[in-house]
Amino acid sequence: MAATPVWSVDPRTGKQREQVAVEATSRDVDEAVRAAHAARGALADAATRAAFLRGAADLLDESADRVVEAADAETALGPGRLTGELARTTGQLRAFADAVDEGAYLDIRIDRADPDRTPPRPELRRFKVPLGVVAVYAASNFPLAFSVPGGDTASALAAGCPVVVKAHPDHPATSELCASLLRRAAVAAGLPADVVSVVHGFDSGLELIRHPLVSAAGFTGSIRGGRALFDAAAARPVPIPFHGELGSLNPVVVTPAAAAERAEEIGAGLAGSVTLGVGQFCVKPGLVLVPEGADGDRVTGALTKALGETEPGVLLDHRMRENFVAGVRERTALAGVTAPVAPGAGGEHTVGAGYLSVAARSLVGVDSGDSGDSGSGYEVLLEECFGPVTVVVRYADQGEAAAVLDRLSGNLSATLQLSTAEAGGAPGPAAELLSQVTALAGRVVVNNWPTGVAVAPAQHHGGPYPAATSHSTSVGGTAIERWLRPVAYQSVPDPLLPPELREANPLGLPRRVTEAGPEQRQG
Questions:
Q1: 139: which DSSP letter?
Q2: Is the Cβ–Cβ distance between 94 and 49 less than 8 Å?
Q3: Quick one: what percent of the chain has pLDDT higher than 70?
Q4: In this structure, which of 211, 316, 336, 455 has its CB flanked by the most CB atoms within 10 Å?
């Protein structure tokens, strides 16, 4: 059987640019995984891993013009956006190198033996070890930061896990270029190139998740695709952790007091967040609760003005464009749904930004007399529509707003737009709203917008299902925890312990020590 070609496609025209690879066969996937598995021992030395990550960042920066040009040709995201994304990507790599040097991620804990306790306590020493080969499934909307050189890859390598990336079909040339740079960096650091490899093709993704030598997986993409892989990971003879980011509506609540205080600012800010990256951010606000009345009208008026001035844009591929147009059509066909600024097809290859509007009582079943069950048709408004559109829900009072929020599933983010007095702790709905959205999301934003996920130690990019399939984050320093497991050593003689746990602490790692006796301390 002839090999299936993998083409790089220009989303601005829909035309093929070049063939960059062929789809991986079962044998290709097996060879990539086995080579990665064989290379895992080479990643054991922390200093070498840190040098590798910094070297990869340096090579990406040195090749910035080529990387940005390739990514723009395949995604139409623009040089400005992609230059910033590349800086974020290399910053992630260096941040994980710093984390490796520091060693706190190992979470070393030592409990001294205490025979006088009841019952007696043995000597216990605990730290974390890498899981093994990690499968990474690249995202469509971030060809760098959530793709071959992105956060999943960087954090897995930092943990000491080799990586096999299933490239996204929207940017295969960018994936091959970035993989070649990472493999060069590995060799320069004294590691086998196969600590990072790339495979292409839909079937290769299934082969990868089922391979017995793959120990964990990270995914960013759709609910449908992610759930299929999640189920496959669980159905293996030996199930493995699957850390998936699947989809999110990212609700926003504008309080009446906030609308009264700064309606125009909120409306304009919302438009910017909805249209950033042509609405293709995973934390794009997809549902916005705006109060009924004159102040709420000022919010939607500013939103209407800003969206009406937004030029049509190109989505990542034509399949996404077709899904966006069909999704908008399905939603606007519902009774009571209006389109003050009609989103949908722009030109032959573009889409126009817009928003839909509906009364809260429609979503909670007040008008129809039901309880908003799945047969009403309105449930589609509570699902993500990928692209530059949001749904504005007009609510009469806090009870209606709370009832809409009660219908939502898990989200990556939830945003509250509050007045100055509410943000300062004045009596009002703010505290109740904060509590309600905390149950819905992995990140709660107040008087800001969720688009833009800072790479920082305190960041959490995840949330209740279907936003994510685990409680871990895919952004920030603690993302490394996904690829580690704890091991405790009981009464093991010091010379036999891993260097990280030996009494002399030869690596100078941070550790928490519990001494024997009645007084407990940390050191």
A1: -
A2: no
A3: 97
A4: 316
Distance (Å, whole) CA 131 – CA 134: 8
Check: CB of residue 240 under 8 Å from CB of residue 214: yes
Q: What is the mean pLDDT of the chain?
A: 95
The pLDDT value recorded for residue 428 is: 79
User: What pLDDT, on a 0 to 100 scale, did the predictor assign at position 373?
Assistant: 45
Which residue of the set 161, 178, 282, 385 is catalytic?
282
Contacts made by residues 29-34, CB under 8 angstroms, sequence distance 24+: 29/164, 29/199, 29/204, 29/207, 29/208, 29/211, 30/207, 30/211, 32/164, 32/194, 32/197, 32/199, 33/133, 33/164, 33/208, 33/211, 33/213, 33/214, 34/213
Does the pTM surpass 0.85? The reply is yes
What are the tens digits of pLDDT across the range 172-204?
999 999 999 999 999 999 999 999 999 999 999
Q: Which residues contact 294 (CB under 8 A, 6 or more apart)?
A: none
Which residues on adjacent β-strands are paired with residue 121?
114
> Catalytic residue at 282?
yes
User: How many residues are there in the chain?
Assistant: 523
Helix, strand, coil content of the chain in percent (nearest 5): 45, 20, 35
> In what side-by-side order are the strands of the sheet with 411-417?
338-341, 354-359, 389-395, 287-291, 252-254, 411-417, 441-446
Q: Which of these is catalytic: 176, 207, 245, 384? A: 245
Q: Using CA atoms, how far apart are residues 290 and 254, in angstroms rounded to an integer?
A: 5
Q: Which two tokens stand for residue 270?
A: 């919302």
Dihedral through CA 312, CA 313, CA 317, CA 323, nearest 10?
-50
Average of pLDDT values for 130-151? 98
Kindly tell me if the per-residue pLDDT of 523 is higher than 50.
Answer: no
Cβ–Cβ under 8 Å, residues 440 and 414: yes
What lies within 8 Å, CB to CB, of 8 at 6+ separation is 16, 17, 18, 19, 20, 73, 74, 171, 172, 173
Which two structure tokens, joined as six digits, stand for 34? 């086995």
Mean pLDDT confidence for 29-34: 98
Q: Give the helix/strand (H/E) hosting 431.
A: helix 430-438
- Distance (Å, rounded) from C-alpha 200 to C-alpha 165? 9
Note the pLDDT of residue 367: 42
